[in-house]
Amino acid sequence: MAVPFSIGKIFDSATQVDGTVFGMQLKHFCVAFLAVLAGGACASCGQMALLKIIGERIITKLRSSLYKHTYVQNAEFFDTHRVGDLISRLGNDTTMVGRSITENLSDGLRSLAFATTGMGMMTYISYKLVGVLALAFPPLAAGAFLYGRAVRDLSRRIQSNQGTLTRIAEERLGNVRTSQAFAGERQEVHRYNDQTRKIFNLAKREAVISATFFSTSSFLGNATFLALLYVGDSMVRSGSITVGDLTTFVMYTGVAGGSLFGLSAAYSDLMKGVGAASRLFELQDHRPIISPTKGMAVKSARGMIEFHDVHFAYPTRPSILVFDGLSLRIAPGRNVAIVAPSGAGKSTVASLLMRFYAPTRGTITINGHDISKMNARQLRRRIGLVGQEPVLFSESIAENVAYGKPEATKSEILEALRLANCHFVHDFPNGIDTLVGARGAQLSGGQKQRIAIARALLKDPDILILDEATSALDVESETLVNRALEPLRQGPRTIITITHRLSTISRSDTIICLGADGKVAQMGTYHHLIADKDGVFAKLVKQQISGR
Ligand SMILES: Nc1ncnc2c1ncn2[C@@H]1O[C@H](COP(=O)(O)OP(=O)(O)OP(=O)(O)O)[C@@H](O)[C@H]1O
Ligand SMILES: [Mg+2]
Fold it and tell me: Which atom of ligand 1 has the smallest separation from the CA of 345?
């Protein structure tokens, strides 16, 4: 900020006899001033590096805290939020906010300081000339305010559409084979293009708005400049200011004007950051209903499992009751099969027991303790779940099997693989270190299921839930898995099998047959249930045997 002032003084010294600047010889002044400039450059280097580092740090912190926060959300949250959108928030929005807080804020503050000092110096030189400038200020300020608001809203919309774009790419590319199988490539490309076009249109609008704002304010600035020179000229002629002062003033006007311009640019970027931040706060403020860490410690999940008059509807579909007063008891150490028509709520029983969702009414107890009072994470450690559509992570087979118990030894992993009849692993060149590909794509459906069974067995759970866990296996492999699981069936473990296969059902001690009305229709041993010819179970079995 000292440059214009000094240049003015140098100009004036050239027209004076003694030729000194601030009482110094010009030569000495130049050396001293060079030192000041060098000092300034060092300070600015430090500031830039520091700001960049702080910005990156903020982004890193924001990302890790948001990721952690997202990871503990309940199933309900993931039913409504799309993963692609969350990825976009973690990636783009955090970057925008980080940059905003550091670079834009510091640019803004620097511009503000420059503009204020410039104004101060200008007032010091000639308040009459400042008066000329003041005329342009109100329209500029009003313009900047309106522009900032428009940019903030646009940015929010752009970011949310960007989220949708990532979501589309993530979901569709992740399932590209299904899409190709239905020759859906064109449709998918169109879907993606439509979304990019939406973003383009919003960006276009932003471009037009900012071009209008910046060119109008630049025009206003230049016009003021012209008016300034016009008035200044007559002031120099009348001798009320020197040429040096006018030069200084004009240069300060340039600096102050440029800073004001910079201020509005920083403001608009800051507003974009605010738009992105509001999306992050939305995520940060979302508290999971079921806290994974609060509640009673769970040492063991052995004991009687009881559903007492459980009512449940999925939060995304509150009007459809899946369970309407479901009551059942599963004695400890038993092998229980749950059978029901498709969509009756078999998998939902597993989800409720795992506390992915909470019943809307009624309670579920294990050994007399309400599971809603238990620490969800510890409870889940005691339950082994093999889901209906098992998902493996893109790691090695060994890492997948040890997922629930990372400290497992190699022999434990091999034993779990043996129990789950995963002999195929040894045919792979890399054995248990074979990578399985994204979501286990490099394995067959049946192989995936068996690895998922091994993963659940390695946890040595108190309750084992097999949700159609052998549905992709042929009869022989299924028999082998069942035979391998036989010793476990004798143990203290409770095994809940959800299945359509008669062979597995008949092997169970107790069969729970759910009706379409969200209640237990029948419960008892295989022979007991099959004897009731008009019962739901007998009908299900008959349909399966006759194929009608
Ligand atoms: N995440 C969800 N959000 C909303 N509704 C759901 C959700 N998951 C399942 N449903 C609905 O809840 C009902 C019970 O589903 P569930 O998956 O428990 O059935 P199921 O008995 O396991 O069927 P299947 O034999 O086909 O696996 C179904 O009508 C289903 O449409
Ligand atoms: Mg199911």
Answer: 18
Element of type H or E holding 180: helix 176-181
Nearest protein CA to atom 5 of ligand 1, as residue? 314
- Which residue from 149, 92, 162 is spatially nearest to 270, judged by alpha carbons? 149
The letter for the amino acid at 283 is L
Instruction: Please tell me the predicted confidence (pLDDT) of residue 19.
Output: 65
| Domains of the chain, each with CATH number or no CATH | 2-284 (1.20.1560.10)
d(C-alpha 483, C-alpha 101), whole Å: 62
| Amino acid present at 14 | A
| Nearest atom in ligand 1 to 344's CA | 21
How do residues 295-317 score in pLDDT, each as one tens digit? 889 888 888 999 999 999 999 99
pLDDT at 313: 94
- The rounded Å distance from CA 399 to ligand 2 centre is 26
Residue from 327, 318, 321, 359 nearest 343 by CA: 321
Q: Which residues of the chain have pLDDT under 50?
A: none
Q: Which of 321, 322, 520 to mutate to test the pocket of ligand 1 (most atoms within 8 A of CB)?
A: 322
Q: CA-based angle 84:89:94, to the nearest 5?
A: 150
317 ligand 1 Cβ < 6 A: yes
